[in-house]
Amino acid sequence: MKFIETLKNIWKIDELKDRIIMTFSLLLVYRFGAQVVLPGIDSSKLASFSENFEGGGIGFVLNAFTGGAFSNASVFALGIMPYISASIVVQLMGIAIPYLQKLQKEGASGQKKINQITRWLTIGICLIQAPSYLLSLGTLGVPSDAYLMPDNMNLFLVSSTIILVTGCVFAMWLGEKITDKGIGNGISLLIMVGIIATLPQAFVQEFAARVTGTGGVMLVLVELLVWFVVILLCIMLVMAVRKIPVQYARRAASGGYEKNEQGSRQFIPLKLNASGVMPIIFAQAIMFVPAALGQLDTSWATTVQTAFGDIFGFWYNLVFALLIIIFTYFYTAITVPTNKMADDLKRNGGFIAGIRPGTETADYLDKIMSQITLPGSIFLALVAIFPAFVSLMGVTQQWALFYGGTSLLIMVGVAIDTMQQINSYLLNRHYDGLIKTGKNRKAVA
């Protein structure tokens, strides 16, 4: 009843209702575009092409992130991933390039320029990825008779490149509009919707395999229970923080001089997993290298491909887990500015009990971050390789990939972020209602 009442309260707030409707509308546009095949390709002859992305591996990952657009040869085949790549590059370049460091300190105006740089870099990445995707269509399984203009392939490549770049830019625009006019982070929502789009098909395949094979419906229920537990553990990983108690000395003027009053106590929340899913994304990019080396016609390349070609294999997951732990430390070090935190704390008159302000505080925060990053990185690595353990229990590969990895963490993180934004609207309206009439009021335009 409380949940139903919450849904009613959401619908009573006009601003929140309009934002949710806007979000769903733009997401529907994105999903519609994922089904539109590139001009010049016969969609009825892409069955064998789509089947190549159903057995796991890099193709399945790319297809999942684009919501099936990659295997549909869609106008949104590149999805939003070029923008994600550009954002990562700009963020890493901000460590070494003084100009970007200066922009980061300029507030909103600097962030606007950084966003513009990211957009132009996104177009540059698209201009590289689009022709590569089009030239690899034949290798990936698109039959030669699927092309409607086989005698004019140059025109097809040029026009399709323009369409793919435009599709990525349009998807980027949709994401930014969702962030501004909708609810939640638009780019993250586009990725999450793409992942969820492949979830029903994976579950139906697993259900059919269990019903017709061994286990039956009861085993499916057990798998759902395990999946629910894994989701709860991912929520704990995303939400877990270490609270560092901080005291602020308050001063009050009295008789021409100031005297200390009792200080107020607050906390610095240090997240257990401050790097989010970025270590998995970085590690996944490195693990794509063996697949590329496997294309070389040499004995050692074949050996590497055999050892690392199976994403559920031992060596793949061992190296994958080690890379995640390493990248977690690396990304945490560059995204959690302990020195800046210590300086801000000192400037505001705050201190950690028993620790001197300044350098000692920065060293103390850095030590705490190192201590909590180790269990956080191990937990993150276990979540990332958990699909390999699930597949050993007879679960189909498509369904096993939803038991961990980037997909599950993105779904959990985005869902939590969106729910927190909705909850903030509800709390604000409830607070406003208590002052006025004690009930939720319609939002004032």
TrEMBL record:
Would I find Ubl conjugation among this entry's keywords?
A: no
Task: State whether keyword Transferase applies.
Answer: no
Primary site of residence: membrane
Q: Name one GO biological process term.
A: protein transport by the Sec complex
Q: Which SUPFAM superfamilies match?
A: Preprotein translocase SecY subunit (SSF103491)
Task: Locate the transmembrane regions by residue number.
Answer: 20-41, 80-100, 120-142, 154-174, 186-204, 216-241, 272-293, 313-331, 372-394, 400-419
Q: Where does this polypeptide localize?
A: Cell membrane; Membrane
Q: Which keywords describe this protein according to UniProt?
A: Cell membrane, Membrane, Protein transport, Translocation, Transmembrane, Transmembrane helix, Transport
**A Pfam family matched by this chain, by name?**
SecY
Family note: Belongs to the SecY/SEC61-alpha family.
**Per its database record, what is this protein's job?**
The central subunit of the protein translocation channel SecYEG. Consists of two halves formed by TMs 1-5 and 6-10. These two domains form a lateral gate at the front which open onto the bilayer between TMs 2 and 7, and are clamped together by SecE at the back. The channel is closed by both a pore ring composed of hydrophobic SecY resides and a short helix (helix 2A) on the extracellular side of the membrane which forms a plug. The plug probably moves laterally to allow the channel to open. The ring and the pore may move independently.
Protein name, entry field: Protein translocase subunit SecY
Q: What's the source species for this entry?
A: Nonlabens ulvanivorans
Give the gene symbol. Answer: secY
